[in-house]
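S1.2 Input.
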Amino acid sequence: MLGHGELIAKLETSWNELLGHGDEAFDITFPAHGVQPSLTLKAIVVHACRNKDSALFDSVIEYKIARCADLGHIRFADYIRSGSNVYLLNSAMMYFQWVLDQCPVGHPDRAAALTNLAWARLHGYIQNDLKDIDFTTSLFRDALALRPQGHPDHRLSLYHLTQALRWRHNNQHTPADIRESAQLYHKLLPLCPEGTYLRNIAAGDNGVNYVFNGCNDIPTDASNEGIHLRRIVLELCPPGNQHRPRSLDNLAQVVEARFDQHGSIDDLEETIQLRREAVSLYPEGHSGSLNNLAVSLRSRFQFQGKSHDLDEAISLHEEALRLRPVGHESRDASLSNLGGALRSRFNQRGDINDINRAVNLYCEALTLCPTPTRDTTLNNLALALKTRYDKSTVGEDLDKAIDMYRESLRLKQPGHPERHRTLFNLSSALCSRFMQTQENEDVEEAIALCEESLVALPPLHPDRHYSYFRLREAHVSLYQIQHNPADLSLAVKNFRLASTHPTQGFPQRIRVAIDWALQAEVFQHESALEAYHTCLELLDIHVMTRSSIISRRDATTAFRGAQSLPVDAASCAIRRNDLQGAVKLEERGRGQQWSLASRLRTPLDDLKLASLPLAHKLSELSKRLSDAQGSTGSADRAAADRAAIEYRKLTGEWETVASEIRTLQGFSRFLLPPSYEDLQVAACHGPVIILIASRYSCNAIIVPTSGQPHHVPFPSLTLAHLKVLKNDFAKVIRNTAGMGPKEPRAALIALLRKIWDEVMLPIVKVLQRDLKLPGHSRIWLCPTAAFTSIPLHAAHPFRPKANGDGRELCLEDIYICSYTPTLSALIRARQKMKTRAATSFVAIGQSQPPAGQGEALLTIDSELELVRSLVPAIANPTTLVGDAATRAGALQALQCNTWVHLACHGKQDHEQPYYSHFAMRDKPLTLLDIMDNNAPHAEFAFLSACHTATGDEETPDEAIHLAAGLQFSGFKSVIGTLWVVDDAVAKHVVKGFYENMFKDLEEGDMPDCTKAAWALNKATYAVKKEVPLEQRIVFIHIGV
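S1.3 Output.
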């Protein structure tokens, strides 16, 4: 009854042999035959009777059903043997139909009856003896419905239905059939153990292989259903399957197509992972897989701005092109793809050789490409020519670009999926020509082309960003020539739309927002402040997605103009009389690296009181995020990609928990950009002076202990003047290295006098006149941009009073000066002062660094002996010197002690400031090491080394130096250096400092790190006769 009519084998036996088993079950085995498996049946004699016509079943009808089913199988078997005897097929189907009619819904044998009839009909269809396949398919579908998951014949019914769908697809080429077949095999294969007959035929040419090939013929479908189908096909091709590489490519193609439509970075990340696996599985030299991976990496570069993605893409494209020599059918595609990657690198790095080579590659591709892809190659070549024109302004390039765009557009009729790109690219070229010729026809056409491109795109398509951007270009061009305010308003509208378009990548949006701010400043438009807010918000989000400290800095420095955003934004707010807004903007933009890193070390004491579960959850996620940062730097790009995806997933979870915390009473601003009131807490022990050096204005803002901030303008000072002043200081300090200690420092004195007159004297007047700040009060300097390289604390008039009664006081005669990288850094340091541990002091010295790390320092040992002699016993002073002063030893000492004196070579790395380091016995102790070394109970560090408080030249508004790193790791108060320290005279400052630091310390008292600024002030004053001016002012205090 359950058979399908196949003739497996013949069995000859006697009645006596059958009846000899009595009532016991016995096996009947049919040996393997051809492709058919061996088969063993369990048999039992249920009713032995001499009369053959006696009923073998309890009812006559069941006997008739069985008898007709057997006759149907006999006729069907004869039909199979005959080749194509339609009479036998019709006879078999007649019997099977009768049996089905006798097995109504609910009958236990209905599924078998459906299967028998369907199987016979299917073979008739295969032999072209039957035309109807739809009814046959419905019979198999009905049988499957009666044999759900868990039924012993469920697997067989799944297989039967796949066969009907396969034959229907084979003749009718219906995509729905191949999609359903893939889903059925996805259910079937896990139910068939390896090595079984059903597994072998299901995974063979007429099973999964047929489905795989059929799915290849289905057009790319980026819908959720289309992607789900490709996922199913991939699962049907496990590792080791011959079709897995192609399945990976097919899934990558539809997932990337969805990225192109919706701009989700998760889709692009998955595409790259899939394509990396495909490359690893294809034979070496498979150019197509290399090309596909390179295209995806370039897309990620354009979306995220990671330079290593572009470098890898170019390398892969070069290799693919090498594998496609002249005459290869796909050489034109490789030429175009490499040209596109080189154009991207030109836009990033500006090497003219890249864009020249890109143009040449496109030209060669154009001579090779077939007609169907000519439109795309024309567009690409035109884009390269326009890019080169923007750099060199060679009119011939622009004219050629416009002609090629027009030809490309002629080949891309309305409805073409890429037509919108040629529309807005041509628009840009026409705008450039309008700026040359001032012919309105060009700019009017440019606007019309952009509007047409927008009509062709759905609201959330990523490319709408470019349409808005080019439309903005057209209106800016018009305004520059005709000065119609309406055009400027329309330009700003499109700036806003382009920079906030949610499905475009952050790098493109950030560049547009920076340009918006620049243009708004140039044209003095009221939207400038909005543009700055947009820039900083986008930059925050973009940098936050980076999974390592170094990659965050790289992300910041990748944008031309981003370095000055904080000061330019603050200057804009000042010019609009919004001083509180200026403070917030300056703080948000500056110290971005420290702020992002510190989020993972936020003290949770108050949160634990409000919600212990959320505090624990955030703490655990912060730890996992911190741990994940290391693995993202793997040299294995595939492993690094996986780590980056995991980091982004953890970041999302962390943000979700942070959002939940903000719903708690009193935590609405938890880890959000602080308000002015929050930031003013930094001034609780004395005013903080923010010095702003912008191309638009130079100013100072004084944040007092209470009340509104005060503005101090520097009308005679420009950014250009400050840069000259910074360079002059650097030159003068270098020259003093060759001077004797008693030689006059006339050039340095002149510079310090200039700083006093033009910068610090106006500030002191406000402090004294408006704030009534008493003498010898604490003040904190927070310099930005060029101000960070100028010794502001040492500002000095160096002249007698006008009345002849003595000399004018300098800044450090009037106030006790400290520095702070940001207001938030000062606030965090004070918060950590709430809990103090027992004082323990370690002096770390390394006078014999390894080769290449500096010369021997002969005075280190005597300096450490001096320090130890001055530190009171209550501080439990110890030393770490010589072979013990290794990188690991120094890290442990920094973590285990609350007070540290560090004497060794220090080096600021100007190319990568996070590699700035102290020279230890074995290897450098880097800024990265220090930042990873969380020391929450640390209090004070004296860095008797060179360049420990020199900032990052690439990001001047980021105080990325060794002293700031120690403050971040937990030290609340740090003495650092601005330039080279002369060891021979530094000991005088060290001696004076510690004498004052521990002065009047009574028995049982703990040393107070908040006295460090005062002690340094006293020490530098006391050593005027022994120490040259540049070596007295080299030391600065940072922190509480």
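S1.4 Remarks. Residues 1-7, 32-40, 44-58 have pLDDT under 50 and may be disordered.
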